Amino acid sequence: MGSVFLPHLKTGWHVDQAILHDQDRLVVIRFGRDHDKDYEVPDFNEMYELYDPMTIMFFYQNKHILCDFSTGDNNKMNFVIHDDQEMIDIIETIFRGARKGKGLVVSPYDYSYKRKK
Amino acid sequence: MERPKFLDQDPPPGYIAGIGRGATGFTTRSDLGSSALSQTPNRYLENKSLSTDNITEDVYEAEKIFSNIDDELSTRNKQRKNRNQPKIKSTTTKFIDLKQQLTAVSKDEWLNLPEATDMTRRNKRLKLENQQQRNIAMYNPSILSTTNLEQLANDREKLLEQHIDSKFGTILENNDYQELLKNLNTNSNRIDTYDVEKSRKVLQSYIRSDPKNPNGWIALARLEEKCLNFKMAKKIIHQGCNEVVYDEDIWLENIRLNRIDDAPLLLKCKTLVAQALKFNGAKSEKLWIKAIELEQNAGNKNQNTITQIIHKALQINPYSEELWKQAVKYEESKEEAIKVLAKAIEFVPKSVDLWTGYIKLQDFGPQQRKTLANAVKELPSSKEMWALGCQLEERAEKPLEKKEESVKCKIIQILKRFKTPHNNDVGYCESWLKQAEKCDLEKYPITAQCIIECFIPNNFLKELLPKINSVELKNFAFQYLLLKQEHLNDPVIWDAYIVFCESGNDNTSKLAYFFQFCELTINDMDDDISKKSLKILTKYNKQDETLRIIDKKLLNTSEYTLRNELQIMKIGILISLKKYSECKRIFEQMIAAETTATIFLKYIDFLIYLNNYEKALIICQLAMEKHPDEEEFVIKMGTIYEFMSEIDKAKQCYINAVSSNFSHSISLWILSAKHEANINKARLLYDKGILKNTKNSGLLMLEKAKREFENGNLSEYRILLNTALKSYSHMPEIWCQLLRTTKKKNEKRNLFQQALKVTNTNALILLEVAINFWNEQQFEKAYKWADQSCKANKKLGDSWIWLYKCSVKLGRKNTEWIKEKVNEIEPDSGEMWNSRRYKFLYSLPSEKLVSLA
Fold it and tell me: Which member of B302, B445, B656, B675 lies 3.0 to 4.6 Å from B651 by CB, making a disulfide possible if both were Cys?
């Protein structure tokens, strides 16, 4: 199950529509399910190389925005952040970068160490 | 937020995810992710198949133990750290209150937040990058070799030519021609054949595309003329005239070209004009005027032909103002001219020039007034007419020899009838000002003044002042402004007035006005301005007048300080007139009243100047009784004794003062020690002085060191100077002494640098550098440094002396500016400058400068 407040996207088509729907907001898509290792919508597994229990990706105006978390993977965020303010900061930074037309944004926090732990 | 509709819809059948929005996956394949475990490398699997279970268990156990140890260690360190340090809040919790305020940030502000970037050594990095790029561009041979610049230019030229031929047939604008012509004109100095060829082609294509446009023809003809191809030019313009017969400009151009080599072709010109007039006669007044001009140039003595032409022209063009003017010009007798003008006004009633001419030609009398009235009726808002009316009035009053005031009143009354359109802006006032100046030029000063009084409000006049050219009028305007209550004490206007009075080569008349004005207003001026203006008066050697004005002001001033200042000014003038007894009288008067120490000092100086030492001593004692705290008087007394060559008494006087109530006075300590001939006693005095003034004994130490130096006690001297420098490193005097006694060149240079740095480029040090260069015979450098020193401290007389010395040595012709500058600044400090103080007490600073240099 997804979040209570956030809509649940049932199929790949819904995911695509969600990405296309908003023109002035950042689209944050979380692939994966809490209780299952398999993705609920397996359509993107190959395309987006989804093999973690949970992956978050960012889109702005149908453009995939990369973010440098110092993890080596700038395409997506496949780790869990335990501080909600951190998550808010990251989303804000990415949104601002995207608004300025950037394709790659540097995360305000460095996760290289945290992930190792 | 509204729930998007697509969430409740079904996907289309057979939809392939991602294709709908053109997604094809990542552009970079960055990692294998943590789940790469599932894709474990083959090598590991091989090992696994080979290994026994025991070994793996051992390995796992060992790993477990080690990781436990690791955990233990890390937690222990952490605990210790936590115990020692207070808990540091994480950044996210730390700024939580600030973050909450971010809701109020507007969209734009938010977007404009600066980006966090790498700022370390940013400038250096940018510079390096820039340099690298430039280097690449410079050395990259591919850029240079592949482009053939000449080829490129030729190609472009061809393209342009084609472009012009095809395009200008449709779009033709006068601006293009004018632009081209202008270019030709500006380049007239150097005619580049290449340019000419190009322009010729362009113009030819212009003409080809629109032969009925006269501008193209004219431009081409001018181009040929520029190249000195007169024949060609004439031919072209002739063609043009045949093409475009109904244009006056091209005909005028034709005539102009034909007249270049003058006389023999005049006849041809005449025929040309006749031809031109045949086509354009009805409308062109320019052609008619040209015809008249030609006729006159032909040396035709017979006026009749000209008048005939004019009459013919006027028959066709009766409303042309210009032609009427010509008619008047060529009319011989005054009566005839008046008649012509009367006629002209009937046709062109709105012409200011014609009316003016008409009125001016008429004899003075009632008839003239009538005409003026008519003119005003016709042109009620014309400033010229009103000004003319006033002029007539002024002229009428002049022979009656009435007083200026009454004439003024009358004129102002006339001007008051002028209905102001109530648009009181600067431009409007300026146009009136122009009228006023015109009147002033035509010798009607009263009218001019009245115009200023009536039409230009004070605040505008203030702005417009710099625009007035006429001297008298400007003077009047200044005085008029200053006489107004609100401006009398306006320093800005006064300054401007003074600058105006001093400007110009022949300013005697202006200064005379200034004196008169000062005398008139001196009692209403405030203190600063009266002092300033009196200074100007004294500057121009008008002693008698100035004395008169000062006396007038003194009568009306009861304020104490101002009175004193005025008295001193008066004494200054009297001294320059060598009226010493008068001065003495004034001094005595001032001393008899309750007075300040400065007056006493001035009086004593005056007495010393006159070599009247006994009297000076008496006054000195009197002053000391009245002002017992003033050390100056003690010094003065000592000086007087010195002048009387009673050194012992002088010394005694200093020592007494120092041992009683002047123990804090550095200069007295120095003086007393200086006059002590016995070195040991002098040392004792210096030490005592230093003990009494521990905080500011720099100068005393310096003097002591100097004394040791004079006595040849070099080691002692060094020690003293160094200790002085240690505690008073900011004092330039100590540095100077050190520099003067340093011999080695290298050491000196370092010391100079250090001294300049420590004393914040003090003028004294700069001067010391200059003197050093002077001693090394490098006068050019010395001059430069002395100049720097003058700039650093204008009041330092010594630097001016050295500057003067250097410029004389260098053979500079213009040394006057230095003298002028010195007179203006009046320097007051410097050892050399004050060395012969009493001799030059009342002479100009420039005289002092020359004799000291």
Answer: B675
